[in-house]
Write a structure and sequence with these properties.
Alpha-Beta Plaits; 38% helix; 4-stranded antiparallel β-sheet; 3 domains; disordered N terminus; single chain; alpha+beta; Arc Repressor Mutant, subunit A; 7 helices
Length: 241
């Protein structure tokens, strides 16, 4: 299986400004609101529990988290958020899936299209790109976060029910069937292995390697511009490292 291919693998590192932090909180709030539609009880809603854990790791204020849950569960009035995935091609012909959460699909579509066309990409028709990806459950664990040696850790991952895993620096990336994500996460944590960045991701079936620095620079600018768009939650591509 190809490695994890979120755009963040080539993102330029930036300082955590107040504006950036506010944008992160806004995106997390939308995710929480959508997940809370299935119920606001963290014990009964594993998806919501994972996103709330991520919000806590980002130091999102507890009041913001609670308000987002209440909006999603119907305890508070608010606009209805929709999840949508756009398909596109970027510079160098890379395939992209752009995951958005929005209260106005017309606005979001127009703004995302505008970003892509201005920065060297083109919009794709429905189904033109998604077939190049598989949706998988995704977990990260830090090697230093466990007292197990490499062999014991790998056996624990397999025993937990993972489909595949790969090592990148000090992180082990674990892939599961979408429906097995929470089961694998719980199985690992029962063995004392802390998991991070859990969620459902789109993993490319094959990766594209681009060596042209000019095209790489164009891709970085496109990904960063999409990240700055408030309704864009995540961007996936088949760009290899």
């Amino acid at each position: 299986m190809s490695g994890h291919s979120k755009w963040s693998t080539i993102k330029r590192k930036k300082g955590a400004t107040d504006a950036k932090r506010s944008q992160v909180f806004s995106k997390l709030s939308k995710l929480i609101t959508v997940a809370a539609r299935a119920g606001g009880d963290l014990e009964m809603n594993a998806s919501l529990r994972m996103i709330v854990e991520k919000a806590k790791q980002s130091n999102m204020p507890a009041d913001n988290v609670e308000r987002a849950i209440k909006k999603g569960s119907g305890e508070l009035e608010g606009v209805r958020m929709e999840e949508i995935i756009y398909e596109a091609y970027g510079p160098g012909g890379i395939a992209m899936l752009i995951e958005c959460i929005t209260d106005n699909t017309n606005r979001t579509l127009s703004e995302v299209k505008n970003i892509i066309s201005k920065l060297g990409g083109r919009f794709g028709s429905e189904g033109s790109v998604k077939w190049m990806f598989d949706q998988k459950g995704y977990l990260e664990i830090k090697k230093s976060g466990s007292d197990k040696n490499k062999e014991e850790l790998e056996l624990a991952i397999i025993d937990a029910g993972a489909e595949d895993f790969s090592e990148k620096n000090e992180v082990i990336e674990i892939y599961t069937k979408p429906e097995d994500l929470y089961k694998v996460k719980n199985n690992l944590e029962e063995q004392g292995i802390k998991t991070e960045n859990a969620g459902l991701d789109w993993i490319p079936k094959d990766e594209v390697k681009i060596d042209d620095e000019k095209i790489i620079s164009q891709i970085e600018k496109l990904f960063e511009a999409l990240d700055e768009q408030d309704d864009v939650n995540e961007v996936y591509s088949n760009l290899g490292e």
